[in-house]
Amino acid sequence: MPATAESGLPAPPLHERQRAFADAILNPALAAPAGLLGPDGVASAHRFGVYRNNVVMGLIHLLEDKFPAVLRLVGTPFFQAMAQAFVLSCPPQSPILLQYGGQFPDFIARFTPARELPYLADVARIEQAYLEAYHAEDADALDPSAFLAIAPQDFDRLHLQLHPSVQVLSCTGPALRIWQMNVGDEPLQPVDLGEAQCVLVSRPEALVELREIQGSSEVFISSLLDQASVVTALQRALAADPEFDLSANLAGLLEAQCIVGFGFAPPDVKRNDP
Asked: What is the pLDDT along the chain (274 residues), one digit of tens a residue?
């Protein structure tokens, strides 16, 4: 076992040294791990500090790229301070950096300096959902004529399979409208911060599509995503809005190419939806 340069004592096992290195990278309160040497064979806390700063800034820039509307809304200094707090509290758990940042919207919702921007976390959720939809698996949309094969007596056992990219978001403010005005060249316009919006996110083909939907539609689609039958999803939507229109919502999902298949629950479990 090799000895450390500082003490001459046996060095800790490799996995312990790797753990100490990883812990110190994202914790400025920790000193440089023992045994780290520069090219000259001499320990250098300064070199480690530069490397640690580069790692943190690299993750901050990654978040800037993933959440451009949030960045535009708050400006670079605020965003970088918020992102640094996130990076130090939520380090990457996977070597696939594409997956990093999924917890950022929830972090923003808890970030005290952002409380004056109550829509900010929802804008971040839209951006995260957009990225997830963009990288979702492909699937062919169902031909609407396939529904002609469904017998009326089987409708209460009907389950729909939605495209892997489909998500729905329930926002407390006009987050979709704010996001649209902060990506691309759409002009800024006044918004009513008290106006809640629900959003359907999908990527039926090459491009991600975002649509504003009614609250009862969000309930309906969320239920379908939770593997509920169409009848159970309908009941939940009607509880949210007695005027919910099933035909119009199914037509909308078909038009958006969000339905990719359907199936039937066995007769003895047709009422055991989640």
From this structure: 344 545 555 666 766 666 666 666 666 666 666 666 667 666 666 666 666 677 889 999 999 999 999 999 999 999 999 999 999 899 888 888 888 999 999 999 999 999 999 999 999 999 999 999 999 999 999 999 998 888 989 999 999 999 999 999 999 999 999 999 999 777 888 899 999 999 999 999 999 999 999 999 999 999 999 999 999 999 999 999 999 999 999 999 999 999 999 999 887 654 555 5
Domain end among 90, 117, 144? 117
Residue 175 shares a structural domain with residue 91: no
Closest CA to 207 of 261, 139, 259, 133: 133
Tell whether 82 and 157 lie within a shared domain.
Answer: no
75 and 14 in one domain? yes
Same domain for 262 and 144, yes or no, is yes
CA count, 13 A, side-chain hemisphere, 10: 5
Task: With CA atoms as reference, report the closest residue to 241 among 222, 215, 213.
Answer: 215
DSSP state of 159: E
Token duo for residue 20: 């100490």
pTM of the model: 0.84
Packed helices 120-134 and 45-66: angle between N→C axes, nearest 10 degrees: 90
